[in-house]
Amino acid sequence: MCGTCGCGDGDVRIGGHAHQHGRAREIALEIDIMAKNDAYAAANRQRFAEGGILALNLVSSPGSGKTSLLVKTIEMLKGTLPVYVVEGDQQTSHDADRIRETGASAIQINTGKGCHLDAHMVGHAVADLNPARGAALFIENVGNLVCPAGFDLGEAHKVVVLSVTEGEDKPLKYPDMFAAADLALINKADLLPHLQVDMALIAANALKINPGIEIIQISALTGTGMAEWLDWIGSAHARVGSAKHVETAAE
Amino acid sequence: MHEMSLCENIREILEKQARADGFARVNKVWLEVGPLSCIEPEALRFGFDVVMRGSLAEGAALDIASSHATARCLACGHVATVQRRYEACPDCKAPGLQVTSGDELKIKKLEVV
Ligand SMILES: Nc1nc2c(ncn2[C@@H]2O[C@H](COP(=O)(O)OP(=O)(O)OP(=O)(O)O)[C@@H](O)[C@H]2O)c(=O)[nH]1
Ligand SMILES: [Mg+2]
Ligand SMILES: [Zn+2]
Ligand SMILES: [Zn+2]
Ligand SMILES: [Zn+2]
């Protein structure tokens, strides 16, 4: 074995020429480490655009009510547009099972130790689900207010769910997530009478991080705010459709 | 939190670069990390050592430079260097500077043999 670099005898032949135990050299680069994820995300985004599919990436800390909101949303969307769900959790298929009970197609991704979904996993899940043209695709990310912010999955929008019991300062403590989201659903609003929570302060903190974020106060339990959320989905879905229209008109 | 998987990306990039540039060992890796990139340098260092074990970059040194984040004031157009997302404009004091760069994560240089 070579004492300079530890390679085995004669096992390194790169580009047809023998490996040289020369001096160390420097190579200047400009390589984006996230490029691989971004390439998969771009492929997903193209698939969604071609299929007129609205893809939403739901992010939150564990237990804020993402699955409960999805179950309610699917019930209310019934008969209006086809709905598909990708469920991300470290373990179990509980959430996908809850979604399937509504009749919607769902795929569970178990990330094991992984703390976020990436665009490659989602690409495979979407290929398996094979969503119909014009569908809505909800991607429920792993419960984690940190890293899912950094991974583009090819979605049209990130939607952050924050429940009223988590504290008014969460947007300030987890600014990346609130900066990345276009909509914040402030869930479990039915609990407000029992708590001393300043809703206006939650909103102000979210707007401080992201002046463009939209905010809807909602309850998956009682249905408060669901109509507003469905309207938001409707507008977002219409934008996907019209973007497709413009493309085909230009062809 | 996902520094391990980022290190796996780095290892893949190094292996690909080794084939393209004809080197067998990496002695040192220079990274540039934006202050808004969600990356914790200490966690990255730890993950790097673990993930590079048994690879062409086993035991390689890691240099992590923090780049600047820039932001633009929507009120007065001032462009400022920032460390966080929600700073107020240093010029006109308006809140909510619009961040324009600072979440990058790049390999800038390698020392190879
Ligand atoms: N009071 C009240 N409870 C709710 C509401 N939405 C969800 N919950 C409860 O909150 C708990 C967690 O809800 P889930 O829907 O599983 O939350 P999740 O975000 O999908 O959780 P993970 O996928 O594990 O991160 C359950 O006990 C729900 O019944 C709501 O609007 N009001
Ligand atoms: Mg869930
Ligand atoms: Zn694959
Ligand atoms: Zn992660
Ligand atoms: Zn200003």
State the domain count of chain A.
1
Q: Assign the CATH topology of chain A.
A: Rossmann fold
Low-pLDDT residue intervals, each spanning 5 or more residues of chain A: 1-19
Work out the radius of gyration of chain A. 22 Å
Most strands sheet of chain B:
3 strands, mixed
Which compounds are bound in this model? guanosine-5'-triphosphate, magnesium ion, zinc ion
State the strand order across the main sheet of chain A.
6-5-7-4-8-9-10
- Helix content range of the residues of chain A, please? 25-40%
General description of the model:
The complex is a heterodimer of chains A (251) and B (113). The model of chain A is unreliable at 1-19 (pLDDT under 50). Chain A has 251 residues and is of the alpha/beta class. Chain A has helices at 35-51, 66-77, 94-100, 119-129, 170-173, 175-180, 199-209, 226-250; strands at residues 13-14, 17-18, 25-32, 54-60, 83-89, 105-110, 136-140, 157-163, 183-187, 214-217. Chain A is globular. The relative contact order of chain A is 0.15. Chain A has one domain (20-250): P-loop containing nucleotide triphosphate hydrolases (Rossmann fold, 3-Layer(aba) Sandwich), CATH 3.40.50. Chain B has 113 residues and is an alpha+beta fold. Chain B has a domain at 3-68 and 102-112: 2-Layer Sandwich (hypothetical protein PF0899 fold). Chain B has helices at residues 3-21, 41-52, and strands spanning 26-33, 61-66, 69-72, 79-82, 98-101, 105-112. In chain B, strand 1, helix 2 (41-52) and strand 2 form a beta-alpha-beta unit. In chain B, helix 1 packs across helix 2 (41-52). The model of chain B has no long low-confidence stretch (mean pLDDT 91). The chains are: A alpha/beta (251), B alpha+beta (113). The interface between A and B is large, with 43 and 41 residues. Strand 3 (25-32) of chain A pairs antiparallel with strand 6 (105-112) of chain B. Bound molecules: guanosine-5'-triphosphate (GTP), magnesium ion and zinc ion (ZN) (3 copies).
